[in-house]
Design a protein that fits this description.
Two copies of one chain form a homodimer. Chain A has about 300 residues and is α/β, with parallel strands linked by helices. The first copy, chain A, is about 45% helix and about 10% strand. A seven-stranded parallel β-sheet of chain A has the order 2-1-7-6-5-4-3. In chain A, helix 4 links the parallel strand 3 and strand 4.
Chain lengths: ~300, ~300
C-alpha cells in the first residue's frame, strides 16, 4: 500500500509565458505559492491546462527544478509526464521521481489513434519497468476529448492488478459522469479524481478522492471549501456556487479565459499569453467574462 | 523560387528497433540505402510510418546524424520535425536544416483539438520565424485521421502567400481524394504528394509531385516505375498492380504489417518490433499476409 496518496483539490497549474513564449519561472512559483496558500492540496503541474505538451522537455524539467529549489515541497507535486514518445515519458517520469514528487499524472501516448488495450497496457508497463522505482506513484490521466485515447475499465483493472503499488489513482476528464461513477464503483481502492469540480460532491459521495480541475487556478478557495464541507448542510449550496463560476468560464475557450482572469488578478497582461496553437482570449471576450464573474460576486 | 523541390516517390522509412526498443541505426542505414537503390527519390524519415512520435527527440537527431555520416546525402532527406511542442519542433527543424536536409515534413501541433486556422497559422509562423533560415523548406503534413488536425484550404493558402519561399509542398494523407484534388487545383505551385500510392496517377495527372507512401518501404520499385511511366500506355496496368499490393496490407494494421514483411525480406525478426502503443503483427496474420502477397506475385 502506498504511503501517501493525494486527496482533495489539486490544481493543474497554468504556465505563464514571457514575450518570447519561454516559461516565466518566477511568475510560476508565485502562482503555485498562492494556490497552496489558498488551500490547494497539491499541484498537478504540466497538465493539459498547463499547456505542458506545447512546451519543450527541457523547459518542463527546468521549471520543476526551479519550483522545488524555490521551496515548494515535492510532496505536493503531481507533474504530468506522459508524452507521445516512450523515452521522453520515461525521462520526465524518472526526473519527477528523482526530485521526490509524490506522484505523476500520466497521459497515455497520444499520437496514434484506435489503439487497443494491449497496446496501452504495454505502454504503461514499459514506462513502469524502465523507471523501476518503488517511489513511482502513477495517476492515470483519462482525457479522451483531447488525447482521443480511451482508457477502458478493463485496462484500468489490468494495470491496477498488475502494478498495485504503482498505479494509485486516476483523473477522469472524460466529461462523462457515468464513466467516473463506474470507475468509482469498480475500483474503490483507486484514488479517483473528477476532472471538473462540477462532479465534486458526487465524486466524494461515491468514495472518490477529490478533483483535479483547471478552474481551481482561479477559484481554489471555494472549491477547497466545498471539498472540506462535503458532508455538511451547506454542501449543495457551495457546489452550486462553484458550478456557476465554472459555467461562466465554459462560455469561452478554457485555458485562454483562465489566463485572462489570472492576468487581471496579478495585474500583469503577460499572464494572458498562451502558446500556439491556442490563442489569447482577446479584449472583448475578457471584458464580457470579467463582467459575468463580477455579477456572480466572484473574487479570486 | 526554391532551388530544389522534391518530386517522385518518397519513402516514410520504417524505423527498426533493437530488443530494448532503441532505434537500430545500422539496420536503418541499410534499409535507407536499399530504398534509394531501388529508385526512391527521397526519404521522408521520421514520419507516421517511422513511429517517429513514439521515439525520443535525442534518438531522432542521433539517427539523422548517423544516416548522413554513413553517406546518405541530406539532399534526399525530408525528415519529419513536427511535434506537439513549439520548442521541440524548432529544435528538430533547426537540426535538420543545419544538417543540410533538402526539406522537412511538418505536422501541426497535435495535442489540442478543435484548433482554428489562426492558431495553426501562428504555430507554423512561429517555427518559421524562429528557425529563420532561407534554407528551410517545409512540406505541410496533413494527416487528420491520426493528428486529428485539419489543415484547411484557406490555411494552406495563407501560409503559402505569407511564406512563399519556405512552404514548398504538402503531403495529403487525409485519405480523401477530393481534398487532394482541391489542393492540386487551388495551389498548383505547391509540390503536392498523395499519402497513398492508390492516388498516384490521378495526382500526377492533376499536376501533383508524386507520392510519399508507407507501402514504398516494401514496394518502392513498382511504385517508382508507375511514377516514371505515368504518361505511357501501361500506366493504368501498373497502377492496378501497386493498388493490389496496397490493398493486401490494408487488411492488417499498416505499420506492423510493413515491418513483418520487411523482417521477412532481411531475414531478421528484429524488424517485426514496433514501439508501444502499437503491437507486432503476430505469426498468424504475418503468414496470411505473406500468402496473399505471394499470390499476387509480389517480390520486395
Amino acid at each position: 500500500m502506498p504511503e501517501h496518496v493525494f486527496r482533495g483539490i489539486l490544481v493543474p497549474v497554468l504556465t505563464p509565458f514571457r514575450p518570447d513564449l519561454s516559461p516565466d519561472a518566477d511568475a510560476f512559483v508565485t502562482h503555485c505559492r498562492w494556490l497552496l496558500n489558498k488551500g490547494a492540496d497539491g499541484l498537478a503541474v504540466f497538465g493539459t491546462t498547463s499547456e505542458a505538451n506545447s512546451i519543450g522537455l527541457e523547459e518542463r524539467m527546468a521549471l520543476l527544478e526551479n519550483l522545488i529549489d524555490s521551496g515548494i515541497s515535492p510532496s505536493v507535486l503531481m507533474p504530468g509526464t506522459g508524452t507521445s514518445a516512450l523515452t521522453d515519458t520515461v525521462r520526465l517520469t524518472e526526473h519527477a521521481v528523482e526530485h521526490g514528487c509524490a506522484g505523476v499524472l500520466m497521459l497515455p501516448p497520444f499520437y496514434y489513434k484506435a489503439i487497443d488495450d494491449d497496446g496501452l497496457f504495454a505502454s504503461y508497463a514499459e514506462v513502469i519497468q524502465r523507471v523501476g522505482s518503488d517511489a513511482l506513484q502513477i495517476y492515470l490521466y483519462h482525457i479522451p476529448p483531447i488525447s482521443q485515447i480511451h482508457l477502458s475499465l478493463k485496462l484500468i483493472g489490468r494495470l491496477l492488478s498488475t502494478y498495485e503499488d504503482t498505479i494509485v489513482g486516476l483523473k477522469d476528464s472524460s466529461g462523462d459522469w457515468s464513466n467516473t461513477e463506474t470507475i468509482l464503483r469498480e475500483y474503490p481502492t483507486l484514488a479517483t479524481f473528477c476532472g471538473s469540480e462540477v462532479f465534486l460532491l458526487e465524486t466524494l459521495q461515491r468514495g472518490g478522492a477529490g478533483s483535479i480541475t483547471a478552474t481551481a487556478n482561479v477559484n481554489v478557495a471555494a472549491i477547497r471549501k466545498t471539498f472540506e464541507r462535503w458532508q455538511e448542510g451547506d454542501a449543495n449550496k457551495l457546489q452550486k456556487e462553484i458550478n456557476s463560476v465554472r459555467k461562466a468560464f465554459e462560455e469561452y475557450p478554457l485555458i485562454p479565459s483562465l489566463k485572462a482572469v489570472t492576468a487581471k488578478f496579478y495585474g500583469s497582461s503577460d499572464w494572458c499569453r498562451v502558446h500556439p496553437p491556442l490563442r489569447d482570449l482577446g479584449i472583448t471576450d475578457t471584458e464580457e467574462l470579467i463582467k459575468s464573474l463580477t455579477n456572480l460576486g466572484f473574487k479570486m
